[in-house]
Amino acid sequence: MSLRHYSLVTGAYWAFTLTDGALRMLVLLHFFNLGYAPVTLAFLFLLYELCGIVTNLLGGWIASRLGLRVTLVAGLALQVVALGLLAFLNPAWPELWSVVWVMAAQALSGVAKDLTKMSAKSAIKVLVPADAKGALFKWVAVLTGSKNALKGAGFFLGGLLLATVGFAGALGIMAGSLALVWLGVWLAVPRDLGKAKSKAGWRDLFAKSRAINVLCVARFFLFGARDIWFVVGVPVFLRGALGWSFAEVGAFMACWVIGYGIVQGAAPAVLRGRSPAGGTATLLTFVLAVVAAAIPLGLAAGFAPGPMIVGGLAVFGVVFALNSAVHSYLILDYTDGDKVALNVGFYYMANAGGRLVGCLLSGVLFQVAGLAGCLWGAAVFCAAAAVTSLALPRGGEEG
Fold it and tell me: How far apart are CA 100 and CA 296, in angstroms?
């Protein structure tokens, strides 16, 4: 694959990411403003996450047989359809009908997101030579970091569009823009991108190495920890308890994800150019568990909630970003190039599973125990990820 083709794939992924971030903020703030309960808000995202589990598993298998172009084009097209469906939501419908409609559209968006992400991440392994581990870590960090920075920009964009052109108008603008991106990818990306030399069988879906299995379990808990506070708890607390405006909530969530993306992109420099091994992931996850527990302890000690949440989650974001960057490198390091789509799909299936559980717990814990319950839940998941990471291969730190 040429650098030009990789640039096309990455550009499409960036465009998709903007709409994905904006859509999350649009749905969350729009339906919170309509008076939906925290648990109901969480349910709006459940099928989004659930479909991601199945999509990552089967998407990697499909990509290995048909190529990454097929999954990338399909992902972009499904997102356009999902945005269009949401734009036709009728405010006069009963709440149950609205919830079902949004969950169905979000399900399509979840399939679209994971097809697109799996395609873009797998393309890195195709481009980078097998013996260039330092370069692989750098490229993974840059792609993942830039993606998350753009997703943060999407959060801000979602809040801004909701305040200026409304829910349906914002969705129409995003659907039209992404349709143009889809057309460009369909015309320019080669058909054989990422095809495996030998056809993968059904047994290959689950035939993974021990290192990959352990990493996937750790990934499940890591992203569950983030979404326990991220999906419902913090945005609703900032809007409902602290009285922040839509734009302010969107700006904070945007800044957190943008900062997280910047740190991810800088991970190779922070780790001094070394190719990380399992020990790096383990250490970072234990540190993250301590940071996660410190935030609710600070709130319980009487610190002002605004500065404590903003400052504590900023530190959480730095450590989480480094941890995530190391995970994203390790999954590619642990896999053979010919099986990259299968293994990356399996890895992101675990990632989606963690987000699904975290999403549900975010609404339940916030409704039962408030923001503190969400933060303690995140700390428990971080500790579980840290303990799991102890079983990762240690290896030597390679320069």
Answer: 34
For residue 54, the model assigns a pLDDT of 81
In the CATH hierarchy, which fold is given to the domain comprising 3-389? Growth Hormone; Chain: A; (1.20.1250)
What one-character DSSP code corresponds to residue 199?
A: P
Assigned token pair, 310: 């903003």
Q: Report pLDDT digits (tens) over 307-317.
A: 999 999 999 99
pTM of the model: 0.74
Contact, 192 vs 67, CB < 8 A? Answer: yes
Total residues belonging to the chain: 399
Residue type, 131: D
CA-based max dimension of the chain? 61
Residue 202 scores a pLDDT above 60: no
Backbone angles phi, psi at 275, to 5 degrees: -80, 115
CA distances to 80, 211, 285, 379, 390 from 384, in Å: 37, 17, 9, 9, 10
Q: Interior CA angle at 237 toward 223 and 259, to 5°?
A: 50
Q: Using pLDDT thresholds of 50, 70 and 90, give the confidence band for residue 284.
A: very high
Do residues 69 and 190 touch, judged by C-beta distance below 8 A? yes
